[in-house]
Structure formats: structure tokens, C-alpha cells
Amino acid sequence: MSLIEQAKQKAAFQAVDEHVLPSHRVIGVGSGSTVVHVVARLLQRDPELNAKTVFIPTSFQSRGLLLDGGLTVGDVEQYPNIDVTIDGADEVDSQLNAIKGGGAAHLQEKVVAEAAKKFVIVADYRKDSKVLGEQWTKGVPVEVVPFAWKAVLKKLQEQGSKNANLRMAVAKAGPVVTDNGNFIIDAPFGLIHDPAKVLKDIKLLTGVVEVGLFCNMAEVAYFGCEDGSVTIRTK
């Protein structure tokens, strides 16, 4: 296992150990590479506890991980009150604001995070920043309805994201299509000192479904470090 994977594992394991309690019956599980380690730790719990627990995935990926592990899967429609949600992030600032959506799942991730009594972020040291935009330079992921993508792109460029672009797929011709059938625009804004304002300005654009800025949502973040330690940031 590489140093980065070891860092992700350390952060994920500690977050699960400290925030998934025996009394919890509904647990939200995010998406991405760090969440692989979250699910691995959940599978190490007492099988009797897991048998009494419903897990709410945020993407096709996390749903598959949970089902492959033999865990019971539900959705927010069935279980609107979640005890805790643990998810990764593309970048986290000093105030626990985060950029998410590198995996194009931020709509479902945000719904599941907001439904939880507690939202916990797990990541490796590369995702730790003072200000959003320091480490993650690809831009703010913006999920848009397909027929409006050009109009939204133009508005984002007018708002200051001159290099905003439609995210293209790697293993297929054409754009990335989300689990919800939408497109993704990546909109770089440089250093984002007021992410809540950027979030509001983008969200008000007609055609935007969701924005990959998670502001004032996380209660705590765990960062796995190169030296094997874990840094914990709380509000």
C-alpha cells in the first residue's frame, strides 16, 4: 500500500472508530478513494451491529462497495434522518469548508450529508488547505442539466471563471454523465476566500442542479499524514 493510501486508511479508520457508534442505525457513506477504507472499517465491526444498521450510499460506487460487503443499503427517501455521514473531499479549508465533486457525485453526497446529524470528512494530507483553491485547482464542480450547459458555462465565465469547462469523459466519447443523468462543469475561481458567496452566486444560475462547495456543513475533518499520524480539525 502506498504512503497516500496508508494515510487515507489511517484517517478513515479513526473517523469510523470515533464517530460510528453502536447506537447508530442509519449511516451515510460517501464516495471516492478514501471511502473504500471507510467501508473496509465498517465491515470490521461486530456483524450483529451491522445487521441492525442501514447504510445510505451517495453514488453507484459506494452502493456497490456496501452491497459487495453484504451490508443493508437504503436511501434518503426511506431514511431521511441519518445518524452520521462520513465522506471524502477534494479539498478542505481552515474553516472546514470543502470542495467535492471530483468524482461527479456531489449532488447525492450533499443530500446525504445534510440529512445527517453529524457530517465527518476523511482525507489525506494533500487535501488540507488554508483557503480553497490552493491544492484543488481543477475548479468548483457544478452539476447542470444537459440542455442548459452552454448557458451556465457562459454565466460562470461572466462571474469570473474564465477557464470554466465542460468535464469530458475518459473512457467514452463526449462529456461525463452523472448518476443523475446530468453534466459537470468545472469552474476555477482561483483562491476562494468566501466560498459561501461563490456557492450562492452559482446556485442561483438557472440550469444549475448542485454546486460542489460544502460550506458550514462538516463538524470535523480527519487528515491522514505522511508520517502515519492523523490530524483532526474541528470548528
Automatic annotation (TrEMBL):
UniProt xrefs under InterPro entries: NagB/RpiA_transferase-like (IPR037171), Ribose5P_isomerase_typA_subgr (IPR020672), Ribose5P_isomerase_type_A (IPR004788)
Keywords: Isomerase
Record GO terms (molecular function): ribose-5-phosphate isomerase activity
Enzyme class: isomerase
Pathway connected to this protein: Carbohydrate degradation; pentose phosphate pathway; D-ribose 5-phosphate from D-ribulose 5-phosphate (non-oxidative stage): step 1/1
Top-level taxon of origin: Eukaryota
One GO BP: pentose-phosphate shunt, non-oxidative branch
Any one Gene Ontology cellular component term annotated for this protein: cytoplasm
EC number, UniProt record: 5.3.1.6
Catalyzed chemical reaction(s): aldehydo-D-ribose 5-phosphate = D-ribulose 5-phosphate
HAMAP family: Rib_5P_isom_A
PANTHER family, per the entry: RIBOSE-5-PHOSPHATE ISOMERASE (PTHR11934)
NCBIfam families: PRK00702.1, rpiA
Family according to the record: Belongs to the ribose 5-phosphate isomerase family.
Protein name per its UniProtKB record: Ribose-5-phosphate isomerase
